[in-house]
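Supplementary Methods, section 5.1.

A reviewer requested that the exact input to the structure prediction be made available. We therefore reproduce it here, unchanged from the version used in the analyses.
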Amino acid sequence: MADIVDIAVSADSFNTLVQAVQTANLVETLKSPGPFTVFAPNDEAFAKLPTGTIQTLLQNPPGLARILTYHVVLGKLMQADLAKLKTIMSVEGSTININCTDRFEVKNATVLAADIEADNGVIHVIDNVILMG
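The structure derived from this sequence is encoded token-by-token as follows.
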């Protein structure tokens, strides 16, 4: 099995996320033993952001790191684990709302693919970049 970063790199649908993780200097963190739960926006999710947003974020590594760590939770939480919770705490320090009633949703994003296991955690692919606040 591979770690979270290697899976994202090999998937070819996370090019923007991989670039953002590299720019924010989070590669080593996400390659560490963890375990982590990552809500990973795919390239289409990043494409939904207003024009110029990605470029602005890439020029602000600390702000970018804050947004990216909002997508990460300590521990390996599978969909079945998350279904029992209403909220979880992100690595960034803010709360993320979870809703598994009708479909699997994390704040303003729907989970497109759940429970992608990695050596150091699990990835849930989401259809929107989740923003703090």
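The chain has a mean pLDDT of 95. These observations are discussed further in the main text.
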